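To illustrate the input format used throughout this study, we show a single complete record. The first block contains the structure-token representation of the backbone; no residue identities are included at this stage. The design step must infer an amino acid for every position from geometry alone.
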């Protein structure tokens, strides 16, 4: 549906458009006066994308795409997808956008890339993108403060929208009493997925085992993908698999392929606590999934997870691990009444605010104005 009440359409080359985060920046209301139209993701390598085709690597980040397609968009908004690009390639992209008068908007999701063991490349990439952007945004006040320190840029704080679909949130909405009050099992989940670079579950597992053994009904559920925990997997981690194989019965090990979206939501909803095993990072979509279904999260001190939403914090980063703080986080989660999940109405209201905020951001980028305040609400 086109814009109403005479607001001119703003065509955004969103990188990407199909990611759930970006999709949920649009209003849930079909009749909202929303002038923003995000272009569909081109197929990697250019050309039209087939339905359901992956958006990565993003064709829009190729200066040649800008040269071919600059008449189809008014500005570019970069979120994800530049992980593997050399700074020189990003400089060429910025120059192509400038040549054709297309402002760049940047949302800084990651100040430390969770997929890079060495931070140097991501730092160099941001050194190109942040100064070049007409508007810089990020998800938390802590990240905005870091952007200010590192680049002397003021970043708008636009919080993460919901991830789970509203109908599913409604289905899973329930009151969770404190585990200590209800008795029975207290299930702590650690999902090692495919062991991306920021993850260090091996350091946490012995302490998590101690923690669940110290609380009544404690169970440690460890999930991992077959590529990491199956001996025939392409990324098989023999040490991790051996530790899990020798773990006592209080450790419930589950090896499987990637969850579907519905399976992932149901998995997170089944836990009493989800532990993020990250030594570095910035923000977390996993944390937002947990918030949507009301599952408490134990989050490390690295990054800005505690700014993003309520967490049980423990000390863990590239230099330090305080085992006692992790035990305390688990015990606190067991003893505490979980923070209620945001209601569907709250999440949809936040989404409407974000849609309006982005329309204003894009208008400001096109006119050189600065008329938006930070969007509140975690």
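Output of the design step:
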């Amino acid at each position: 549906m086109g814009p109403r009440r005479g607001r001119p359409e703003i065509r955004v080359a969103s990188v990407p458009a199909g990611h759930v985060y970006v999709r949920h920046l649009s209003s849930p209301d079909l009749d909202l006066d929303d002038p923003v139209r995000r272009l569909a993701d081109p197929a990697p390598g250019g050309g039209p994308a087939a339905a359901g085709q992956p958006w990565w690597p993003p064709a829009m980040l190729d200066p040649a795409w800008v040269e071919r397609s600059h008449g189809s968009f008014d500005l570019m908004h970069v979120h994800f997808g530049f992980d593997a690009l050399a700074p020189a390639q990003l400089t060429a992209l910025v120059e192509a956008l400038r040549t054709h008068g297309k402002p760049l908007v940047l949302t800084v999701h990651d100040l430390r890339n969770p997929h890079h063991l060495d931070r140097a490349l991501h730092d160099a990439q941001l050194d190109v993108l942040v100064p070049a952007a007409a508007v810089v945004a990020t998800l938390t006040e802590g990240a905005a403060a870091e952007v200010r320190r590192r680049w002397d840029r003021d970043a708008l704080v636009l919080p993460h929208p919901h991830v789970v679909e509203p109908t599913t949130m409604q289905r899973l909405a329930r009151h969770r009493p404190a585990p200590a009050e209800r008795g029975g099992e207290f299930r702590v989940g650690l999902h090692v997925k495919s062991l991306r670079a920021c993850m260090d579950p091996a350091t946490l597992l012995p302490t998590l085992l101690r923690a669940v053994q110290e609380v009544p009904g404690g169970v440690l559920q460890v999930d991992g993908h077959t590529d990491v925990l199956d001996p025939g997997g392409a990324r098989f981690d023999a040490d991790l698999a051996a530790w899990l194989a020798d773990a006592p019965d209080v450790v419930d090990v589950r090896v499987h392929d990637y969850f579907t979206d519905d399976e992932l939501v149901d998995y997170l909803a089944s836990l009493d606590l989800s532990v993020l095993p990250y030594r570095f990072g910035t923000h977390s979509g996993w944390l937002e999934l947990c918030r949507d279904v009301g599952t408490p999260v134990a989050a490390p001190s690295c990054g800005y997870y505690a700014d993003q939403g309520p967490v049980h914090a423990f000390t863990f980063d590239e230099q330090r691990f305080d085992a006692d703080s992790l035990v305390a986080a688990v015990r606190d989660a067991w003893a505490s009444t979980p923070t209620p999940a945001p209601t569907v109405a709250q999440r949809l209201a936040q989404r409407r605010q974000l849609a309006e905020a982005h329309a204003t951001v894009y208008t400001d980028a096109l006119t050189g104005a600065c008329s938006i305040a930070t969007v509140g609400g975690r």
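Structural context for interpreting the output: The chain has two domains: 10-162+347-367, 166-335. The mean pLDDT is 94.
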